[in-house]
Amino acid sequence: MAEKKKRVVVVGGGIAGSLLCKTFHKHHHVDFTLIDSKEYFEITWANLRSMVEPSFAKRTLINHHEYLPGASIITSDAIEIDEQHQVSTTSDRQIAFDYLVIATGHMGNHHVTISDRLRQFEADYEKIQSSNTILIVGGGPTGVELAGEIVVDFPAKKVKLVHRGSRLLEFISETAGKKVLDWLTARNVEVILGQSVDLDSSSDGVYSTSSGETITADCHFKCTSEPIGSSWIKETILKDCLDDHGRLMVDEHLRVKGFANIFAIGDVTDVPELKQGYLAQKHALVVANNLKLLIEGGDEGKMVKYSPATSAMAIVSLGRREALAYIRCVTMIGRIPGLIKSKDLFVGKTRKQLGLKA
């Protein structure tokens, strides 16, 4: 009699969830199902390049079936986890599990199909191309990288960047923020710090700031952080496992506290570290090892422990050739860090991790 396979359900096909699924693809002891709100995996750290070069997106949007051929994939939103070990979806499906992994990250775009997402990049490109003055709201890595992409590809455009913090890139050093500020202002980007923008009250290209000033622009892009993708969990058996910030509380093995067969990975967890893509991938690999151990009947005491990143590390691209690197408290800006990231934005490397051509 054939051994019954363990049912693994992964909710969320982003950076962490996709890599986890890839590690289990064709595992002979596992019957896994991916539940995702969209039909594709998006290499999110490359999507700003796609806004100035829409054709670039064709390598960054990957249908789940492309790297998981033959897998069970449900394109729907998860809405419930019950005591019968089932996940329910908005498409009225109930999927039973022996092990569950939640990888819903942050709320992202709402485009279900690749074609819809490509059309959005085309629309963003047309908006940039047809505007003389562009407002960017948010001075974190997303806002800084978008400003860099625009001023390199469209040097005649006037870019205005507004950030409510006292400096850019607040998640890393003051020196790094100052170097990026100097880089942007040298390219005629107007940077306004210590203010926010009321986007809802804009009228005819006039925006009001928190200090009562007005900014005129032909279009705007909001580059502030999106909410954590955990609102649906508040209606499930895991509702008491969410902290005050809406993140799932996990133990050192990345299991949701109080549940031996439910794990969480990526931005949706309360792991005390910066929420970055390469760290989410590390979560995925730790949980993959732990699930394989449990599924194959190994000693639970030998489960891998995840060690949170203790120091910030980042490479922020500045257009196609330059970047800012912050590694082990050392800051470098220019062509050398640009060689690491800015040309391809790690797209080839990420595709290779999924077993695809770079």
Mind sketching the topology for me?
Elements: E1 6-11, H1 15-24, E2 30-36, E3 40-42, H2 47-52, H3 57-60, E4 61-63, H4 64-67, E5 72-75, E6 78-81, E7 86-89, E8 94-96, E9 99-102, H5 114-130, E10 133-137, H6 141-153, E11 158-163, H7 174-185, E12 190-193, E13 197-203, E14 206-209, E15 214-216, E16 219-222, E17 262-264, H8 277-295, E18 313-318, E19 322-327, E20 330-334, H9 335-341, H10 347-353
Parallel strand pairs: 1-2, 1-9, 2-5, 9-17, 10-11, 10-16, 11-12
Antiparallel strand pairs: 3-4, 6-7, 7-8, 13-14, 14-15, 18-19, 19-20
Helix pairs in contact: 1-8
Pfam family, one: Pyr_redox_2
Organism: Helianthus annuus (Common sunflower)
Family: Belongs to the FAD-dependent oxidoreductase family.
Question: What's this entry about, in short?
Answer:
Helices cover 28% and strands 25% of the residues.
Strand order of the largest sheet: 5-2-1-9-17
Mean of residue pLDDT values: 95
Shape: globular
What is the level 1 CATH name of the largest domain?
Answer: Alpha Beta
Order of helices and strands: EHEEHHEHEEEEEHEHEHEEEEEEHEEEHH
Structural class by secondary-structure content: alpha/beta
Cα Rg: 21 Å
Task: Report on the biggest sheet.
Answer: 5 strands, parallel
**What is the total tally of β strands?**
20
Strand residue content: 25-35%
Domain FAD/NAD(P)-binding: 7-274
GO molecular function, one term: flavin adenine dinucleotide binding
Pfam family, one: Pyr_redox_2
Family: Belongs to the FAD-dependent oxidoreductase family.
Task: Report on the architecture of this protein.
The protein has 358 residues and is α/β, with parallel strands linked by helices. It folds into 2 domains: 6-37 and 76-108 and 226-302, FAD/NAD(P)-binding domain, CATH 3.50.50; 114-225 and 312-353, FAD/NAD(P)-binding domain. 28% of the residues lie in helices and 25% in strands. It has helices at residues 15-24, 47-52, 57-60, 64-67, 114-130, 141-153, 174-185, 277-295, 335-341, 347-353; strands at 6-11, 30-36, 40-42, 61-63, 72-75, 78-81, 86-89, 94-96, 99-102, 133-137, 158-163, 190-193, 197-203, 206-209, 214-216, 219-222, 262-264, 313-318, 322-327, 330-334. Helix 1 packs parallel to helix 8 (277-295).
